[in-house]
Structures are given as C-alpha cells and as structure tokens.
Specification:
It is a single chain. This protein has 100 residues and is mainly α. It is built from four helices and no strands. The longest helix has 18 residues. The mean pLDDT is 91.
C-alpha cells in the first residue's frame, strides 16, 4: 500500500452534513467519496465534471477588458467643470421626473 497522508479541508458545516447524507445513501462514507474524486481527477487529468460559468456571469478578464475599453473611449472626452457636471445631473433628474 502506498504511503498515506492526511488532507484537511474546511467547509461549511451544513454543506458537509448534506453531502455526507448523500454519500451515505449511496453506501459510502465521505472519505471514500473524496478518494474517488481524487482518483477520477487523476484519470481525467483535471476536474472530473464540467466546470463552466452560466451565460450571465462576467469573468474577471471580461470585466477588466470592458473597463479598459471604457477608459480608452473616455480618454479623449474633454474635462468638465463642476458647474457643467451639476447642470448635467440636474437635467438627467428633470428628465427622469418627466417620465415618471
């Protein structure tokens, strides 16, 4: 038998209980399920299930790219005075009141 090591992981107490109940209903304990996960990970050389983001989630890279694009677009916008900013805010508030 190969040398064994201890692996410790902190998880939410309720999550641990929920998955323990699931595995017990399948006839196995939590350590066996974790060993199965490790073994399968080794076999597929990765995470042994699909790991994709939902369509409505923006990745960090996408958010940074969008931010960089906004900065690029705003780079040639002339500076506004405080009075111009306040006037634009007032106009937007008035327009919003008119539509309500």
């Amino acid at each position: 038998m190969a040398e064994q090591v201890l692996v410790q992981v902190r998880v939410d107490k309720q999550l641990k209980q929920d998955v323990t109940d699931i595995y017990e209903s399948l006839g196995m304990d939590l350590p066996t399920a974790i060993r199965m996960f490790f073994t399968r990970s080794k076999m597929v050389r990765g995470i042994p299930f699909e790991t994709t983001l939902p369509d409505n989630v923006v990745t960090r890279r996408e958010a940074l790219d969008a931010f960089d694009e906004l900065r690029r677009q705003a780079s040639d916008v002339p500076e506004m005075t405080l009075e111009e900013i306040n006037a634009e805010i007032s106009e937007a508030r008035a327009a919003r009141k008119d539509t309500q």
